[in-house]
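Reply to thread "Modeling small-molecule complexes from scratch"

Following up on the discussion above, here's a worked example others can learn from. I took a protein sequence and the SMILES for 5,10-Methenyltetrahydrofolate and predicted the complex. Inputs first:
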Amino acid sequence: MTAQIIDGKALSAQLRTEVAARAAALKAKSGITPGLAVILVGDNQASQVYVRNKVKACEEAGFHSVLEKYDAAMTEAELLARVEALNNDPTIHGILVQLPLPKHIDDHKVIETISPAKDVDGFHVASAGALMVGEVGFKACTPYGCMRMLESIGMKDLRGKHAVVIGRSNIVGKPMAMMLLAANATVTITHSGTADLGAMTRQADVVVAAVGKRNVLTRDMVKPGAVVIDVGMNRDDDGKLCGDVDYEGVRQVAGWITPVPGGVGPMTITMLLVNTMESAERAANA
Ligand SMILES: NC(=O)C1=CN([C@@H]2O[C@H](COP(=O)(O)OP(=O)(O)OC[C@H]3O[C@@H](n4cnc5c(N)ncnc54)[C@H](OP(=O)(O)O)[C@@H]3O)[C@@H](O)[C@H]2O)C=CC1
Ligand SMILES: Nc1nc(=O)c2c([nH]1)NC[C@@H]1CN(c3ccc(C(=O)N[C@@H](CCC(=O)O)C(=O)O)cc3)C=[N+]21
Ligand SMILES: [Mg+2]
C-alpha cells in the first residue's frame, strides 16, 4: 500500500477559482477590488521567489496588488512609516511584510504595527489571540491551508484523532496546534526538546512536520495509514526543493501524504488570497 497524495496545487487551483469569482462579485456589487500590499526588505533569494508567486496569484484572481521592495539598509522607522501608510490606504485590504527581515529591524514591532483588520498573514498578537480564544480573526495562512487539505480528504472534524505537530514557531507550529484543537483533535506539540519524537509520532493519526530539516520524519516513525502533512521547505544535496519528511520512505506506510513542492506551499498562498478576499468583503460591509 502506498499513500494517496493530497495535491495542494490542484486544491489551490480550485479554491483560487472560487476566490476569483468572489472578487468579481464584490467588484460588481460595491466597486471594491481586493488589494494586497507585499513589502520585501533586502534581497533574500527565496523571499524573492515567494513574493513573486504571491503577486502573480493576486493578479490571476483579479486582485489589486502592490509590491514594495526596499534596500536591506532601510531603517526600522522607515518601514514602520510604510506600514502605517498602508494601514490608512483604503485600496489596500491586506498587508504582508515578508519574513525574515534584516537583523536591525525588530519583526515583532513591525507585525504589531500592521492594523489587525489588514493582518492577512495572521501574525499579529490580536490574530493569534483570536485563534486562541475562538474569536473571529485572520488565521495564519500555512496552518489554515493545512486544515483545508485535511478537509479535502474528509477530515474536517478530528474528534477521536490524535494529531502530532512537530515544531512550535509562532507562524506555523503553534497556530497549527490551535487549529487542530479547534477541530476537536487531541493534540501533541513536539519540538527540539522532545525526548523521543518517534514515540510521539507513532501514536499519531495526523502528523504535521514544520521544522526546516530534511528527513525529520522517517517511515519507522509513522503509524500505518496516518495522514502526513509536510510544511518544510528545504534543499537536498542536489539543490532540489524538499520537505521535512522522507517522502519515498514515508509514503510506503502513510495513508495520505502531501508532496513538496506542490503541497502546503501553494495552499499558503491560496489562504493569503482567501484572507485578503475576506478583508475586502468586511471593508465593503463596514
Ligand atoms: N510551505 C509553506 O508555506 C511554509 C513553509 N515553511 C517552512 O516550514 C519550516 C518551519 O518553519 P518555521 O516554523 O518558521 O521554523 P522555525 O525555525 O521557526 O521553527 C522550527 C521548529 O522546529 C523545532 N525543531 C528543530 N529541530 C527539531 C527536531 N530535531 N525535532 C523536533 N523539532 C525540532 C524547533 O524547536 P525549538 O522551538 O525548540 O527551537 C522549532 O520549534 C521551514 O522549513 C520553513 O521554510 C514556513 C512557512 C510557510
Ligand atoms: N510574512 C510572511 N508570510 C509568509 O507566509 C511567509 C513569510 N513571511 N516568509 C517565508 C515563508 C515561506 N512561505 C512560503 C510560501 C509559499 C511557498 C511555495 O509556494 N512553495 C512552492 C514552491 C516554490 C519554489 O519553487 O521555490 C511549493 O511548495 O510548491 C513556499 C513558502 C511563506 N512564508
Ligand atoms: Mg529581526
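What I'd highlight from this example: Residues 8-30 form the longest helix (23 residues). The mean pLDDT is 97. Questions welcome below.
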